[in-house]
Amino acid sequence: MFRTSRFCLFAFLLGASAVASAATVAVGTELRPIDIADQHDKAGRVDDSVRVLMFSRDMTANKLAKKAFMDKPADYLDQRHAMYLIDVSGMPGFVTRHFAIPKMQKYGYRIFLDREGELTGTLPSREDQVMVMKLDHLKVESIDFVSDAAALNRAVEAAQ
Questions:
Q1: H helices present in 26-99, as ranges
Q2: Are 88 and 113 in contact (CB under 8 A)?
Q3: Helix or strand run (H / E) with residue 35
Q4: Which one of 43, 50, 52, 140 is least enclosed by Cβ atoms within 10 Å?
Q5: Using CA atoms, how far apart are residues 122 and 46, in angstroms rounded to an integer?
Q6: What predicted TM-score, i.e. pTM, was given to this entire model?
Q7: b/e string for 14-28 if b means 16 or more Cβ within 10 A?
Q8: Going from the N-terminus, what domains does the chain have, and what CATH number goes with each?
């Protein structure tokens, strides 16, 4: 009985520790640099030069970003020290490789892909919205959620 209780306590504390270490990023958090590839499999890095980090986990938010950035010059986000990351880990690998990525490769802006969900797992998200995080040398200054293309462009422009 005592041994079972100790094991249960140990398992609970181990689980609580894992949850605590995976806490959602919040204002004031200092991010670690992230190495991540884009839809063309070209390397990118979230580092202290990035001022705006945008993120989404769902198709509706991705369509919002497409509407905001599709007609912009190819270097629009780079020139504004902004990066757009998406989590594609929930998508079946076959669909990602054969349909989603080839479609994204036609877009003029870079989309950085978290294929496993591990790199972006602690980033906050809301369904149908793009998360916009303003950074100062990887320290989170603000977190907002936008649901229209004009607001997304304003957020990128305001961070310059």
A1: 59-69, 76-79, 93-95
A2: yes
A3: strand 34-37
A4: 43
A5: 14
A6: 0.84
A7: eeeeeeeeeeebeee
A8: 25-158 (3.40.30.10)
